[in-house]
Here is the input.
Amino acid sequence: MSKAKELQEEGLRLFQEGLYDEAAQRFSEALEHYAEEGKELEAAEMLNNLGVIRRKQERWEEAAEAVEEAKRIFERLGDKGREAQAWGNLGGIYASMGKRDKAMEAWQAAIGLFAEVGDEDKQGETMMSLGIALFKDGRRQEGLAAYQAGLQMVKHPTTMQQVTRILMTIQAKLFSLGI
Here is the structure.
């Protein structure tokens, strides 16, 4: 296993343990190794990981810069799946920054790319995020529709998502009965 891959795996382990500074250090080191090896895709993945960590640390500008750079690389290399993931991460970062319009634009881009690559789960999760943002923006019906559509796309919903599906089904039946 290459040194870069070892650092990447250690970074993932540290991230899962909540040791964000240490994980960021390993991802930065892996990024350098991947760059030296000419592995742009893997280097961009490390940038994306760094962006996710910086978001968790509420270091919004650093998060956005890292993920934007990763997105540009994924786009240039034609990796639509990773580009979609980066767009989705940007949506979350922008939402955390209070930039709801930019978040919604990013999520819409991600949704389109996830559709192109056939990743319904991630497309559905992203539609739910967009739905929540639309709802908070006062576009309640549009938000509920996007959320509900996204919820139906997720193949393995969480318990809360399963409950929400049931409640939305009940609500639809009640409305159809005029109750």
In short: The radius of gyration is 18 Å. The mean pLDDT is 93. DSSP finds nine helices and no strands in the chain. Residues 1-97 form a domain with the Serine Threonine Protein Phosphatase 5, Tetratricopeptide repeat fold (CATH 1.25.40.10).
